[in-house]
C-alpha cells in the first residue's frame, strides 16, 4: 500500500512536465499559424494593391489612347467632337471600370493648365498645342534667315538675359564661335568634368541644364510635383535660396519651349496639298482645276508661265485666260501672298496681250473667304510635315513676340483680335492671314511673317491621370502625341507616379461622390 502511493507520487512531476511541453508546442503551432495568416493577409493586400495599380495604369493609358483617337480625326473632326482646348465632357472623369459588388470606380482625366497673362489660373480638360511654344529645333534656322532672330526669340522669355540667350544659341548653332556673351567649346572643356557643346538640336529640354547660366529654377520653376500649382512648401524652398525668387507667379522657360511642334502639310480632307511650283504644268493644271474653280486654276498657271505684270494697263477681273499648257513655266511663286492683287499679261494670237487680274484681292471679303480656300488646297513647301511654326491663335504673348519680323507694337492688338482662348473656328481664322484681313499688319509684313506662323498644329501635350474614386492608388504621366503621321504616336512620356496624384479629387472627378455610378446601378442600366 505504501509502495503504491510512493509510485503514484513519483510519477506526478513527469506528467506535469509533459503538459508544459505540450502547451509550448501548441503555442508555437498557434504562433506559426498566426504568422502564416499574417503573411497571407499581407500578400493578399499586396496582390490587391498590385491589381489596383494595374487598373490605374490602364486608366492613364486609356486617357492617352483617347487623346490619340481624337487627334486622329483631323482638325474638322476634332472640332466636331468638342475640340481639344477645354472639353470636360470628353476628357474629365471618364469611367473606365466598375468593380462588381463594390463601390470601386476607376477613372481617367486628361488635363493641362489654363494660362492667362503669363500665369496659371486653373486647369482645363484637354490638351495643349505644342505649336503655341517656341521650337528649339528651328531657332538656328531662324538665325540664318533673319540675323539674331533666334536670340531675340529667347530674349522674350521672362527673366532671360542676353548672356544666357547667347549661351543657348551657341549650344544650338553648328559653329564653334562664341557670341558676344555666349559660351562655346573653350568654356565647356574647362569644366569639371569637361564636356562639349551640342552644336545642334537638343534631344531634351533637360539638356539645357548643361548650358552656361541655365538653372533648374529658371527652366522648370519651383513646381516640383509638376501639378502646375506652386504649393506653400515649394514656395518656401524657393524663398529659402534654392530658386530665383519667393514668388509663385510667372511661368518657367519650359512652359514656352518645345522640341516637337509640327503640323501636316495637308488639305482639310487629309490629302497632301498641291505644290503650286510643280514643274509639270499639265499635271498641275489638272490638280488645280479639280481642287479649285476653273478661272482660279487658269490664272495660277498663267502666273507660272508669264509672271507678274507691272505695267500701266489695269486689266480685267474674271477674264478668261487662254492657256497653252505646252509652254514651260518661267516663274516660281515665292509666297502665296504674291498672288494678292497680282496681274498677268498673257500673249494673244491677235498680237495684243490680255492683262488678267488675280481673283485674290486685298479686299477684306476676299481675304476672309477666297484666300483661305486657296490656302486649303495649295502650298509652296513640298515637305509633308512643317516644323516649328507658331500657332498665332493660341500662343502666349511672349511666344508671339518671338516670331521673326513681328512688329512689337502689334502684339497686343493680335491678342485682342484673335478672340476667345483656344482660337476661332471661323474659316477666316484657319490661317494667319486673318491678321491681314483685320488690317493688323500690312501685306509686306504678312509676307515676312507667313513662313513662321500657323493657325493649327498636330502635336499636343497633356497630363493623363488614372485613379480610383477613393483617391488611392493613382497613376499620372505627361505625354506628347504627334499626329502628323498616318497613326498618332507618342513622342514623349514622363512617368509622374512618384510625385503623387497631383490634383484633388474634386478637380479630377468633377462631381460629388453621391452622384457617382455604382456597379449595381450600372448593371441595372445595362440590363434595361
TrEMBL record:
Extract one GO cellular component term from the record.
plasma membrane
Signal peptide (from-to): none
Write out the similarity annotation.
Answer: Belongs to the GSP K family.
Query: Boundaries of each T2SS protein K first SAM-like domain copy?
Result: 132-218
Keyword DNA-binding on entry = no
For this entry, list what GO says about its biological process: protein secretion
Transmembrane residue ranges: 16-41
The UniProt entry, under InterPro entries, shows: EF_Hand_1_Ca_BS (IPR018247), GspK (IPR005628), GspK_central_sf (IPR038072), T2SSK_SAM-like_1st (IPR049031)
What are the protein's UniProt keywords? Cell inner membrane, Cell membrane, Membrane, Protein transport, Transmembrane, Transmembrane helix, Transport
Places the protein is found: Cell inner membrane
What is this protein's record name? Answer: General secretion pathway protein K
Amino acid at each position: 500500500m505504501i509502495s503504491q502511493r510512493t509510485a503514484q507520487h513519483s510519477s506526478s512531476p513527469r506528467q506535469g512536465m509533459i503538459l508544459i511541453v505540450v502547451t509550448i508546442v501548441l503555442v508555437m503551432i498557434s504562433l506559426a499559424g498566426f504568422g502564416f495568416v499574417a503573411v497571407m493577409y499581407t500578400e493578399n493586400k499586396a496582390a490587391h494593391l498590385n491589381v489596383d495599380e494595374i487598373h490605374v495604369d490602364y486608366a492613364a493609358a486609356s486617357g492617352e489612347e483617347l487623346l490619340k483617337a481624337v487627334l486622329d480625326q483631323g482638325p474638322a473632326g476634332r472640332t466636331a467632337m468638342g475640340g481639344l482646348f477645354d472639353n470636360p465632357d470628353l476628357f474629365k472623369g471618364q469611367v473606365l471600370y466598375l468593380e462588381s459588388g463594390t463601390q470601386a470606380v476607376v477613372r481617367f482625366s486628361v488635363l493641362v493648365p489654363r494660362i492667362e497673362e503669363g500665369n496659371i489660373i486653373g486647369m482645363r480638360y484637354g490638351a495643349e498645342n505644342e505649336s503655341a511654344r517656341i521650337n528649339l529645333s528651328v531657332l538656328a534656322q531662324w538665325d540664318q534667315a533673319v540675323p539674331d532672330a533666334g536670340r531675340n526669340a529667347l530674349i522674350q522669355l521672362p527673366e532671360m538675359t542676353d548672356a544666357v540667350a547667347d549661351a543657348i544659341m551657341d549650344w544650338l548653332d553648328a559653329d564653334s564661335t562664341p557670341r558676344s556673351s555666349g559660351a562655346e567649346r573653350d568654356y565647356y572643356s574647362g569644366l569639371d568634368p569637361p564636356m562639349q557643346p551640342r552644336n545642334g538640336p537638343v534631344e531634351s529640354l533637360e539638356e539645357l541644364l548643361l548650358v552656361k547660366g541655365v538653372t533648374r529654377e529658371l527652366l522648370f520653376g519651383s513646381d516640383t510635383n509638376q501639378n502646375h500649382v506652386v504649393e506653400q512648401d515649394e514656395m518656401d524652398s524657393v524663398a529659402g535660396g534654392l530658386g530665383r525668387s519667393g514668388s509663385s507667379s510667372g511661368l518657367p522657360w519650359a512652359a514656352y519651349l518645345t522640341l516637337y511642334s509640327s503640323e501636316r502639310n495637308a488639305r482639310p480632307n487629309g490629302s497632301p496639298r498641291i505644290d503650286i511650283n510643280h514643274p509639270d504644268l499639265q499635271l498641275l493644271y489638272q490638280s488645280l482645276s479639280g481642287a479649285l474653280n476653273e478661272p482660279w486654276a487658269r490664272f495660277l498657271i498663267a502666273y507660272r508661265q508669264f509672271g507678274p505684270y507691272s505695267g500701266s494697263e489695269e486689266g480685267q477681273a474674271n477674264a478668261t485666260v487662254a492657256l497653252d499648257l505646252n509652254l514651260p513655266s518661267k516663274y516660281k511663286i515665292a509666297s502665296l501672298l504674291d498672288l494678292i492683287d497680282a496681274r498677268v499679261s498673257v500673249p494673244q494670237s491677235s498680237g495684243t496681250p490680255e492683262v488678267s487680274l488675280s481673283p485674290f484681292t486685298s479686299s477684306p471679303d476676299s481675304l476672309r473667304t477666297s484666300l483661305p480656300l486657296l490656302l486649303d488646297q495649295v502650298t509652296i513647301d513640298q515637305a509633308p510635315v512643317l516644323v516649328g511654326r507658331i500657332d498665332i491663335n493660341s500662343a502666349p504673348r511672349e511666344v508671339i513676340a518671338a516670331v521673326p519680323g513681328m512688329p512689337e507694337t502689334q502684339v497686343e492688338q493680335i491678342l485682342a483680335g484673335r478672340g476667345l482662348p483656344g482660337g476661332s473656328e471661323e474659316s477666316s481664322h484657319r490661317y494667319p492671314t486673318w491678321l491681314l484681313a483685320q488690317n493688323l499688319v500690312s501685306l509686306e509684313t504678312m509676307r515676312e511673317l507667313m513662313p513662321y506662323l500657323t493657325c493649327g498644329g498636330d502635336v499636343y501635350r497633356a497630363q493623363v491621370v488614372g485613379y480610383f474614386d477613393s483617391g488611392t492608388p493613382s497613376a499620372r504621366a505627361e505625354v506628347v502625341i504627334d499626329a502628323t503621321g498616318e497613326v498618332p504616336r507618342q513622342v514623349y512620356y514622363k512617368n509622374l507616379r512618384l510625385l503623387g496624384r497631383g490634383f484633388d479629387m474634386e478637380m479630377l472627378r468633377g462631381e460629388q461622390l453621391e452622384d457617382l455610378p455604382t456597379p449595381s446601378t450600372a448593371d441595372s442600366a445595362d440590363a434595361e
